[in-house]
Design goal:
Order of helices and strands: EHEEHHEHEEEEEEEEHH
Number of domains: 1
CATH topology: Rossmann fold
Bound molecules: glutamine
Largest sheet: 6 strands, mixed
CATH class: Alpha Beta
Number of helices: 6
Shape: globular
CATH superfamily: Class I glutamine amidotransferase (GATase) domain
Distance between the termini: 36 Å
Length: 265
């Protein structure tokens, strides 16, 4: 592709289309994945989480439908699985009013058990608030009983988490916000390498209903197939009653995990 001439407005890199199917799987049903705010909240490869879910769904024999929701869009009906990524403080300020206007819809979906994966910036805004390093308070939608305070210390690097549900989770963090969990919520796991939620309690991420919240980018799901399959299984069981797994090709995930596990902090 010829590069655009200098000064051409930058087009977002998230895709509107799925990559071509390698081999059409017999469809056991379809699953609608909604990615929240990919235009403003999509850093360090977070879009890859949606692509992994779509590809693994195909491997399991289900047809994925991938939708995007950005500021000002109509909220789609019949969503089975929701993913949201991280962003700069400025991106969080851009989406905050629209996100607040969707608080009741998202809360209803969350309380009803819709599986969701929210990373970093959207993890923070699914909580009560994020007070940025510069002192602005960005209100969250309060689905998660967590609060976040920006600090001068930026937490950056590779992370390994021990999770009681998902084993070792590997990823990469880069945030100024430090999150603490309230009494009504459990962490996703504890950090064996890296920092996670904050620099004091050794916890990373949060678990509530079928929501997985995490600081980890990378993207996260290509290296963590058990987590991907939890989200997929939950979405399929909610929609169809039972999940009949296929045979995903985990060879690249295994290599990516080996590589990520060897990386220094
Ligand atoms: N802007 C937020 C912070 O710095 C979230 C960063 C992110 O999503 N990586 O804490």
């Amino acid at each position: 592709m010829t590069p655009p001439p200098p000064g051409t407005p930058h087009e977002p890199t998230f895709g509107h289309e799925l990559p071509p199917e390698e081999s059409p799987a017999p469809s056991k049903g379809s699953i609608r994945i909604l990615q929240l705010y990919p235009r403003d909240m999509n850093i360090y490869g977070d879009w890859g989480n949606a692509l992994v879910l779509a590809q693994r769904l195909r491997w399991h024999g289900y047809a994925p439908e991938l939708l995007e929701y950005n500021v000002g869009d109509a909220f789609p009906a019949d969503v089975d699985l929701i993913v949201g990524g991280g962003g700069q403080d400025s991106g969080q300020l851009v989406i905050k009013d629209d996100l607040l206007s969707r608080a009741s819809t998202l809360t209803e979906l969350a309380e009803d058990g819709t599986p969701m994966l929210v990373i970093c910036g959207l993890y923070q805004l699914f909580g009560k608030f994020f007070k940025t390093r510069l002192g602005s308070v960005i209100p969250g939608i309060g689905i998660l009983d967590v609060e976040t305070h920006g600090t001068e210390e930026r937490l950056i690097g590779n992370v390994s988490v021990s999770s009681p549900e998902f084993g070792t989770i590997l990823g990469y963090e880069n945030h100024s916000g430090q999150t603490t969990l309230g009494p009504g919520i459990a962490p996703l796991g504890t950090t064996a390498k890296g920092t996670g939620n904050n620099s004091s309690d050794g916890q990373e991420g949060a678990r509530y209903r079928n929501i997985v919240a995490s600081y980890l980018h990378g993207s996260l799901l290509p290296k963590n197939p058990d987590l991907s399959d939890f989200l997929i299984r939950t979405a399929v069981e909610r929609k169809y009653g039972t999940f009949s797994p296929g045979q995903p090709d985990d060879s690249y995930a295994v290599l990516a995990r080996e590589h990520a596990a060897r990386r220094p902090r």
